[in-house]
Amino acid sequence: MKPVLSVLSLTGAILGTLACGHKDARPEAHELPKVAVSVVALGAPESGAWVAATLQSTRTAMLSTRMAAQVKRVLVQEGQRVAAGTLLISLGDEDLQGQLKAAETGLATVEAHHRRIQALQAQKASTLAELEQVQAQVAQAQAGVTALKANIAYTQLRAPFSGVVQSRKVNEGDFVGPGMPLLELVGDGEQELVATLSEDEAKGLKAGAKLKFESEGVEGEAQITGLAPGGDQYSHKGTLRAKVLKPKGLRQGSFARILVPGLPVAQELSVPRSALVQRGELTGVFIAKEGHAELRWLSLGEGTGSYLSVRSGLKQGEQVIDRPGALQDGQPIDLGVNRAK
What we know:
The protein has 3 domains: 97 residues, conserved putative lor/sdh protein from methanococcus maripaludis s2 fold; 81 residues, Efflux pump adaptor protein, beta barrel domain (Elongation Factor Tu (Ef-tu), domain 3); 123 residues, CATH 2.40.50.100. It is α+β, with helices and mostly antiparallel strands. Helix 1 runs antiparallel to helix 2. A hairpin with a 2-residue loop joins strand 21 and strand 22. The protein starts with 5 loop residues before the first strand and ends in a 19-residue tail after the last strand. It is built from 3 helices and 23 strands. The protein is elongated.
């Protein structure tokens, strides 16, 4: 069981006693401001351990070309949002256009010859073999034209889906070859978390289960969509994929942490984030001690949800004031009588 701290919730304001009656009345010297508080006992933070993950889109494409060509135009920039079908990169196609014209001329010639043979065949002036031969020539010429048109289409790289240009790897004038990555496109819509888990970490998890995660200070929830067994021959770890349910629109490629339930948690103290006070680069909390608020500087570690672990600066059983507001070091406080059990 993880050690638990008693946390104080600030419930009242500073009480100043003002004298009534005569104008010249002054507050008595012994009447000092006090703070009304109630003690709240919290259980241990949620059990489990954090596993590193990466946030990414469920639709990602690395565009490349299937031929050698020179980059003629790059029509998008990194970070630009594009719709499906938008022209992104145009490659030089002058050679292919010339080959296409020659192929179309050849097709027209063989089609004309095919019509003459058909006319002769109708008059019984040609053989069936001649007709079959010219039909094969027509089919071959048509296939050549179709292939060239397809290759020309490959010189115009268009967005396969709507999304954001994640990275651009070429500039105008560059010479590219088959399979060379030109541009990465990240799709709009659903996002997922991808993590690698050991056999022990994946124990008890299954597709459909929901997990909590954190990314860039934002808490969220994800649902497991895929869990592959440890297939890596060196690390013996498998891959976990979890669809982000909430929140939406997080930054692609961000580092995230998934809370895997059931894993052992280090035995260390923790404090709620709401109890922290910041003074420049120092972070601390207020401790209720002998009727006063004592400011204590802390060394903090990783966190679980709304809690942060404490490396040093606190002892088990000390009372931490939650949501201290404008509380000052050494200020008298009143713990009150409304203590939670």
